[in-house]
């Protein structure tokens, strides 16, 4: 489980950095703006998660995550992820969805390790998954995706619930977590493609 948690953390960080490259191009940010958005998006949720489980944020105590962020930024710039002739909205949604599900898994696993209840596991899965994205959107003066987007926060909550139930029934394994990742990512992409939404509040 520790190996899978680290792997999911790496996937989430890399995916969120790539999404930051996409949104930085769209918002016409300078290089400093890109670095700020990338670090907030990729590491913000993990920092909040670690504080909630009463541990020193790993990004503050170890350079590993910071190096991954910086390396991904430069690799993305070299490979031209910020200027490829593809729909940047699709690039953003795909990478952001990968980061969302990966971080929801790491948050849920951390909650289980800390002995949280089902509510705690679902809540920390949500916070880990969307915390960085919420800070990113607020910094860009946008309404966070969590509050308006199709099955965004709902996917993180569902991932947390499923992982708690898998652990309760002694079915938690690297294989079952891989299935959770694939299903969670598929639901998020299907929601985007088919324009699924939760009921809106109407005045």
Structure in words:
- By secondary structure, the protein is mainly α.
- It has one domain (2-194).
- It is 77% helix and 0% strand.
Helix-strand layout with pairing:
Layout: H1 2-26, H2 31-52, H3 58-61, H4 64-79, H5 88-113, H6 118-139, H7 145-148, H8 153-168, H9 174-194
Helix pairs in contact: 1-2, 1-4, 1-5, 2-4, 2-5, 2-6, 5-6, 5-8, 5-9, 6-8, 8-9
Using brief descriptors, characterize the structure shown:
203 residues, single chain, mainly alpha, globular
Q: What's a quick, concise take on this entry?
A:
The protein has helices at residues 2-26, 31-52, 58-61, 64-79, 88-113, 118-139, 145-148, 153-168, 174-194. It has 9 helices and no strands.
Mean model confidence by pLDDT: 88
Number of strands: 0
SSE pattern: HHHHHHHHH
How large is the share of residues in beta strands?
Answer: under 5%
> What is the radius of gyration?
16 Å
| Amino-to-carboxy terminus distance | 46 Å
Helical content stands at: over 70%
Molecular shape: globular
Number of domains: 1
Helix tally? 9
Structural classification: mainly alpha
The major beta sheet can be summarized as:
none
* Low-pLDDT regions: none
């Amino acid at each position: 489980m520790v190996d899978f948690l680290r792997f999911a953390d790496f996937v989430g960080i890399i995916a969120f950095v790539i999404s930051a490259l996409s949104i930085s191009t769209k918002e016409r940010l300078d290089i400093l703006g890109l670095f700020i958005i990338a670090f907030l998006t990729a590491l913000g949720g993990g920092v909040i998660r670690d504080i909630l489980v009463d541990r020193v944020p790993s990004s503050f105590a170890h350079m590993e995550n910071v190096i991954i962020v910086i390396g991904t930024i430069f690799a993305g710039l070299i490979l031209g992820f910020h200027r490829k002739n593809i729909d940047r909205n699709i690039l953003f949604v795909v990478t952001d969805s990968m980061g969302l599900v990966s971080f929801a898994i790491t948050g849920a696993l951390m909650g289980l390790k800390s002995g949280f209840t089902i509510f705690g596991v679902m809540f920390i899965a949500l916070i880990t998954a969307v915390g960085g994205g919420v800070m990113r959107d607020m910094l860009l003066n946008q309404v966070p995706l969590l509050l308006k987007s199709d099955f965004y926060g709902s996917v993180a909550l569902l991932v947390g619930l499923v992982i708690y139930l898998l652990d309760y029934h002694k079915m938690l394994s690297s294989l079952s977590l891989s299935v959770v990742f694939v299903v969670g990512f598929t639901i998020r992409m299907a929601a985007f493609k088919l324009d699924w939404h939760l009921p809106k509040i109407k005045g």
